[in-house]
Amino acid sequence: MIFLLVGVGGLSFPFLPFGLSGDLDYLDAVAQERVVDVPMASSSFSSSPTPAPSFDPNRPNIKNRLFISKLDISMPIFESDDADVLVKGGWIFPGTSTPEYASNTVIFGHRFRYLPPVSNTFYALDKIRAGDEIKVSWKGTTYTYRTTEIKIIEPTDFSVLNSTDKATITLITCAPLFSTKQRLVVIAELI
Predict the structure, then answer these.
(1) Which range, of 24-38, 74-88, 108-122, averages the lowest pLDDT?
(2) 54: closest CA among 88, 12, 99, 10?
(3) N or C: which end of the chain has fewer CB within 10 A?
(4) Strands 73-79 and 90-92: what pairing?
């Protein structure tokens, strides 16, 4: 019986939600690489997406928000030293820029923790194309970016976190869908 449970647990390992397993290792390695002390999200070992959160991502009082209208994404974004905010929406990675500064704002987001129609995930981010617009409402100002690059990277590639000379937004999530094997990265420049 124990072997059966271990076997089933082992099979579900690649399907753990973003913020668990491989992504914890990735975020931990990033934090150590960048000399940032970032507490990692707590684990709940569920092999399937969780139901919609009691937190309402569409609450109007959450002003800091990322919009990709083509993909029906309206994601609240949070600054925090704690990755636990990922259950609420996007997480601006500590040590990277924020939209009001002309550098690289890096936002991590879950891909499948909550399935659509919940709009606070990057579930459909793989449908974005070069030239698509991304808007960020941040501290009362709206910033509009145009997608310039879409790529898949290995979890050990930290180059996407580097500062930039132009105002840039970098969105990072798991790839392929339902896997933590690689990262889908979308890069857009302010227009």
Answers:
(1) 24-38
(2) 88
(3) N
(4) parallel
Q: Following DSSP, what letter does each residue of the chain receive, concatenated?
A: -HHHHHHHHHHHGGGPPTTSHHHHHHHHHHHHHTT---PPPPP---SSPPPPPSS-TT-TT---EEEEGGGTEEEEEEE-S-GGGGGTSEEEPTTS--TTSSSEEEEE--SSSS-TT-SSS-TTGGG--TT-EEEEEETTEEEEEEEEEEEEE-TT--GGGS--SS-EEEEEEEESTT--SEEEEEEEEE-
Tokens for 126, please give them: 């793989």
3-13 pLDDT tens trace = 333 343 333 33
Q: How far is CA 36 from CA 29, 49, 86, 106, in A?
A: 10, 29, 18, 15
Rounded to two decimals, the pTM is 0.72
Query: Are 135 and 66 a contacting pair, CB within 8 Å?
Result: yes
